[in-house]
Amino acid sequence: MNIELKTAAAYIRVSTDNQTELSPDSQIKEIRKYAKQHGYIVPNEYIFRDDGISGRKAEKRPEFIRMIATAKQKPAPFSAVLLWKFSRFARNQEESIFYKGMLSRNDIEVKSISEPIIDGPFGSLIERIIEWFDEFYSINLSGEVKRGMTEKVERGGAVSIPSFGYDIVDKQYVVNPETAPMVRQIYADYLNGMSAIQIARKLNDMGIRTTRGNLWENRTVDYILHNPVYIGKIRWNPTGRTRRNYDDPNIMITDGQHEPIIDEESFNKVQTIYERQQKKYNRYAHTSGKKYMYMLHGLVKCSDCGSSLAAAIKGTSLQCIKYNHGQCKTSHHITIAKLNEMVLTGIETAFETGIFNIKIKNTRPTEEKTEIDIDALIQKEKLKYKRIKEAFEAGVYTIEELKESRRIIDERITALRAQEIKPQHTEAQLRKKLIDEHKNAVATLRDPTVSEEDKNELIRSFIDKIVFDRKSTSIQLFFYI
């Protein structure tokens, strides 16, 4: 008996809307029932689930994004995405069409198990109408939610997660006895002359974490120093997140119903000091957001935390981004001119000796591409047997069906292995090939008439990253081909 089970993924989403909808477990149950009836199997690793998240924007749904990334693999790991309703996929028609098109290019269908669509152009029209209705419903609901939240803010109620120093009990802010003293300490340190970045480093050294469990940065300290919640106010922006634009005219500030942590006099003194500091250092800021381009732009990493090194003031030196934000403990400051010379000398030495770190990137159509594709196909066949075995253990298939499936899969794997192409280049040959292709690169990189943009593009063609160690003032070069 020849069995050809198709693999499908399931996407589950339950929004924050006050609406009647199936629970995540019920959606999975119905999807599995549909899958069995229509010749699909849904492995656990291909169940993607976003709970309590709006469908308006894809980037705010981590499991959705992971599903799309998985679906883009070659060959496609599944042939369909099964949903309880099309509205679970997206509430934004433009995004829905975009991501369905992306999946379609890899021969993956999107199916709603409760909204069957007939084949042909009329079916596509019905699907567009359903998507339009879902988007209209979402926009209308969003407006209703904003109006409700605005009314709650006007009454002094809490409408967001608790700020650091508070908990939410019965929908009201309540002072947290463990973190509230840290808020008072932050204000006291700032009033005593400490900068936001110094306060951030102090908190990190003490093992204190933000409300979300992250390390402190200068901007998170700034946010606390500007948050009127600590003097008994409620701040809310109905048009979006406030972020660091504290002068946004859309911001609402009303009297809250909670206990203040900071007195108004201290809060106002902090605002005065902050404004004075901004005016004092504003003249050193980069003009009109200009970014300085340099040869090593985007390539240099911190040896302590792995973050990028970025250009400091006036673009003459580099510093670890996380150190600037108070999250990395070690300064990696170095002038661009000095680092350029270290890198160019390092490349020259590597090309002369043939000793350097190298990795193969699948960015070019090489002989190894065929081997990688065949290996992926073999793994896919092995996964098929695993899933059929799971179905057998669940009582869906008989022992005869299991044996026949195993025989068919073994034959396919044998045929695929016969097509495997062994690597045609040894590592030594790849090193020689890289050197031959880029032996004249250093001369171009040292040429003062070549623009920094062109130098950056050239060096990126064979350097993957550069790790700079401040303690030993040394670098590690990582080449690729």
Verbal overview:
With 481 residues, this protein is of the alpha/beta class. It folds into four domains: 6-138, 3-Layer(aba) Sandwich (Rossmann fold), CATH 3.40.50; 166-284, Hect, E3 ligase catalytic domain fold (Alpha-Beta Complex); 286-367 and 423-481, no CATH class; 368-418. The chain is 45% helix and 14% strand. It has helices at residues 24-37, 62-71, 86-89, 93-104, 121-154, 180-191, 196-205, 218-226, 264-281, 321-324, 336-353, 368-393, 399-418, 427-438, 441-446, 452-459; strands at residues 6-14, 40-41, 47-51, 80-83, 109-112, 166-169, 172-175, 233-236, 252-255, 300-302, 309-311, 317-320, 334-335, 357-359, 463-469, 474-480. The strands form five sheets. Strands 1, 2, 3, 4 and 5 form a five-stranded parallel sheet that branches. The longest helix has 34 residues, at 121-154. 22% of the residues are buried.
